Records
---
Amino acid sequence: MSCSFVCGWTMDRKAILSWTFLLCLCVMISSAAGANTVLKDEEELEDWSNRKAPTGRIKYNMRKSLNLDQDGCYLQRGKNASLEECGFNATAKTIFIIHGWTMSGMFETWMRKLVSAVMQRENEANVVVVDWLSLAQQLYPDAVNHTHTVGSDIAAMLNWLQDERALPLENVHLIGYSLGAHVAGYAGTYVKGSIGRITGLDPAGPMFEGVEEQKRLSPDDADFVDVLHTYTREALGVSIGIQQAIGDIDIYPNGGEVQPGCGLADVLSLAGNFMEVMKCEHERAVHLFVDSLMNKEHVSYAFQCTDPQRFRKGICLSCRKNRCNGIGYNARKMRKRRNSKMYLKTRAVTPFGGYHYQMKMHVFDRKHSENADPTFFVKLYGSHNDTGNMPVEIADSIGLNHTNTFLVFTEEDIGDLLKIKLTWEGASESWTSLWSNVRKSLMTWNTKPAKAVLEVRRIRVKAGETQKKYTFCAQDSSQTEISPGDSITYVKCRDGWEVKPKKRLPM
Ligand SMILES: *[C@@H]1O[C@H](CO)[C@@H](O)[C@H](O)[C@H]1NC(C)=O
Ligand SMILES: *[C@@H]1O[C@H](CO)[C@@H](O)[C@H](O)[C@H]1NC(C)=O
Ligand SMILES: *[C@@H]1O[C@H](CO)[C@@H](O)[C@H](O)[C@H]1NC(C)=O
Ligand SMILES: *[C@@H]1O[C@H](CO)[C@@H](O)[C@H](O)[C@H]1NC(C)=O
Ligand SMILES: *[C@@H]1O[C@H](CO)[C@@H](O)[C@H](O)[C@H]1NC(C)=O
């Protein structure tokens, strides 16, 4: 698709101008800077659609073997024989994978990865790729319009399977990426009965954000609707992935905004371009889902929280009353509770899961160090491995005479947490603190500034993945004061957070 075509068209349709403008910009940049990259991608693309496929515009390609170079087989509504030929097993799970908008008109490389991961995890399932490429390779608003057509076609296919083979709808799982998520929503709306599960992988935002439930994926479309949001950052008034919560659970990895490993620098260093940055963040939802299929033994959990800022403070690491859930394929159906937003941090590469710790420490100021504004680091020592020094991230600044709560995320499994080292960055290590000291000494006419002294006696820790709570006390109970450049080591002193034993009942 040529860029001028897209750009010319945006002139009179203002609503999607910015989205198309963005893409246009990216296409221009990619064709100018990386014609080779584009070609390479196309070579990798699967083109099942051109191989002895039925003539309809919506095709149901049932994958028959893990060898994805083989064609698979096409299910055709009304043709009993196609079910035999494809070996459709009505008592097994049925998983439909639905792609989104396309500029190339071909399957992108993620499709192969997702299909293969689904087939490996569910080796008896009927895995069907819904191919609506010819309707998706249109101007974005036209492709949006077609989501309705494709969704009702899938509903008709499922109705036929119910009539013909008594297919139990509760065994049906639709997985839709981007526009494909809303296609799945329409399928759920029009099918007779209720589909078991719909997973939306970064459902498309433009023309769906803020519209009524009937016109987008919504919790009514299946018994369980789970959504991963990975690219909800707004640019020029739109975001490519929908920002609002639209499922029974909505998971926002890394806040749903900036995915690790997708930064401009990360991607450009891998011979990418701006298009690749967008693709990296949007497509991350698919890769997180693939990861959840492949890494059954290390389930990543997401935690319910009212907003990403509170999550970043470490306030929300609870699993009580369904407040946490596995992500991706491992998400469990919960009692209907609408629009439950959940968060987690991830690594930049597969396996994406890491380990979350909530830490609380009361910072006492007993020696008039009101202006201390400390920069703290923690280093965790575990039974398997240790972390490096990690900055303590607190939104504003460390509160004095105050209990500070923060989130620590480790990429490695360090095993049981044994020891914590708290370090106050030394004056010489940071130019800002150096400058503030210089300024202080100038202000006080060169009298040596008083050394700031704060006190931290213990650190309370809750591990998100195990839900265990511990209290860590200063290794040397007489050494709880800390100044710039100093460290204090804390060791586990009790399970749980109780500071004092509860009032004992008389024996
Ligand atoms: C399709 O096949 C099933 C079982 O193989 C059979 O019961 C049904 O009658 C067939 N339907 C038609 C329309 O041939
Ligand atoms: C169909 O699927 C069910 C459930 O997974 C399984 O028990 C059965 O063996 C399968 N039948 C065939 C013919 O593969
Ligand atoms: C959507 O598509 C239908 C045909 O499928 C067409 O009649 C209608 O005008 C289209 N709507 C828009 C807004 O393009
Ligand atoms: C903290 O409390 C102490 C008294 O316990 C007081 O002297 C000090 O000024 C307080 N510091 C701040 C920053 O409020
Ligand atoms: C410990 O972690 C480091 C990275 O922080 C890693 O390179 C190393 O392989 C790990 N060691 C073990 C024994 O897991």
---
Amino acid sequence: MGQRRRLVRSRRGSNLFVGDEPFDGTVVRILTSGIERLPSPFEGRARVRVQAGNDWDALVAYTVREGLAGIEAMSGIPGTVGAAPVQNIGAYGQEIQETLVEVELIDESTGEVSVVPASELGLGFRTSVLKHHYGGEPLRRAVILSVTLDLADVGSAGRIVRGDQLRRALALANDDPVPLAWVREQILGIRASKGMVLDDDDPTPTAPARSSRTRSSRTRSRAGCRRSARAGRSRPTSTRSR
Ligand SMILES: Cc1cc2nc3c(=O)[nH]c(=O)nc-3n(C[C@H](O)[C@H](O)[C@H](O)COP(=O)(O)OP(=O)(O)OC[C@H]3O[C@@H](n4cnc5c(N)ncnc54)[C@H](O)[C@@H]3O)c2cc1C
């Protein structure tokens, strides 16, 4: 961990370009998993502490099942929970910084484990102090061990969707409440229609629509990306607000 060149590679590597030449450094592969539900100091909210190697989308699926709102629009983003704060992942107007409370990390210079509040991570649009920008050194060299989020405890009933970007994506014309599960289903459908959902069982690499990367880089950096557009949109099954 003390070596100058170190590459943290989560289980997925979905945001990494790996060259063909040998890598002179240490690769840390994070395979921890687990979601712990905690009370929130705020009324009507709940916290989850999640191990860094946990699959991000599995976490989103869990929160939706539990009726916890705040990350449902980030359904289908490939990768692990530990990598999510590194570039402040986001989609359709939601970003992890809106719900991130703190991360537990191991500091590479001291080897110490500490809990760092989100406010000290320099979170911005797809960036943080932990991010390697185009192979450069991050401002803070650390490995995230766990992530704590604070989410709204809304239950399974419908709620009014806020945020223009998300409302546009969901084609919501009015303030009818919709359940979290419906939002997740729609987002997964939209992402799949753009080839933005990875499938480990499908070896065929497919470019996401917004990428400007070269084909060879994409091919090396992905296990597979399936284009599986869903036909049409279903209607929400609940309109009860909570
Ligand atoms: C098809 C596709 C769609 C995508 N859609 C989106 C999107 O909508 N929104 C979005 O924000 N991103 C998106 N991404 C980017 C990617 O999903 C995210 O960056 C994700 O967080 C990467 O997770 P990973 O576990 O694969 O990280 P990796 O690719 O393995 O690592 C990414 C970086 O984070 C560092 N890192 C990883 N884990 C840790 C850790 N525990 N501690 C410290 N550093 C760590 C690595 O060293 C590396 O620098 C997409 C990527 C693909 C391929």
